[in-house]
Amino acid sequence: MMATLTRIGAIVVKEFRHLLRDPRMLLAVVITPVIQLLLFAYAISFDVENVPTLVVDLDQTQTSRTYLEQYEASPFFEVVAHGSTLADVDTAFDQNTARVAIVIQAGFARSLAAGEQAQVSVMVDGSEPNAAKVSQAYSVAINQLYTQQLTRQWADAQGLDLSSVGMLEPRVRTWYNPERRSSDFLIPGLMVVIIAIVTVQQTAVTLVRERDLGTEEQLEVSPLRKVELMVGKLLPWTLIAFAEVAMITGLGRTVFGIPMRGDFWALAVGAALFVFASLGMGLLISAVAPSLDTANILAMLIAFLPSFLLSGLAFALDQIPVVLQWISYGFPARYMVTISRGVFLKGAGFPEVWPELAALAVYAVVMIVISSVLYGRRARR
Fold first, then answer.
1. Beta pairing, strands 77-83 & 100-104
2. Which candidate, 37, 349, 324, places its Cα nearest to that of 186?
3. Which of 74, 137, 286, 291 has the largest CB neighbor count within 10 A?
4. Model's pTM, two decimal places?
């Protein structure tokens, strides 16, 4: 046992010497996750507000101006210009100066006064689907509220009492993220993606670098077992990854105000298992990649794209094709995103996330074993 620990310790010391020999790489490994978190957190947002809005009032009456005040008072719409013809709508959309156009037809006030149905056109720029859908929903809501006001005014004019009429009053409550901030939703998942990118990419080149430096044969003739070599290669990056997890978690809590409602130790265990799983995936790439360039490309393809697209970070997994849902089970980020969001936002603990913890533990063991087998086969060639 002591001999095994001694051999593993020698590999760990060797890896740290490689890192300390190139301080720039060590600095990049430590600083890059922070930069990525800040860039992703501020650049990616599903919050839609202050949508540039063009108003074309062809009626020019007090009634039409009162109607438009509904949009001007809304925090969602920002009236940036007033047009005089329908051609102004095309110009604003083509020049990207507005994403919504409200066009009040001539005769708007006259139609309402006569008890007829007035026409209002709401045109939405669909080149940005998310903003278009939300803009349409808000516009419909504003028009419904305005219609209710008109109904009450008509009833008062007729001397009718609507207080005795049964009405439906929905009361909507948002759980876990009452302010519906994108940062609360994104950052727990971004932490997972960033850690996956760093750990997989750095370990993906570790065995390939030995071949490029010509030290692979020395390792093969040494008394090191393949599993000892793998563990020795993993430990330095494991320690660095743990430091990055703590650093990114601290930034999320202090800079972005992400709540921590669940069991911290469930998150810590999940992060540890996820780090081992990601490092095992990196070693697997390193064992089969013929060159550093190939290892880097494979690491980015396997670490970034699946972690971003198939983890539930940006898109709900039940909304993607069934085939991709099944493929997502083959990547550890899927399980860790569930753990991270559960602990941060939903107050989850071990009873709620144990299936994901078990999946990560199995994944980590399988990756390390497969990496050892493949490296052993390659060494015997």
1. unpaired
2. 37
3. 286
4. 0.74
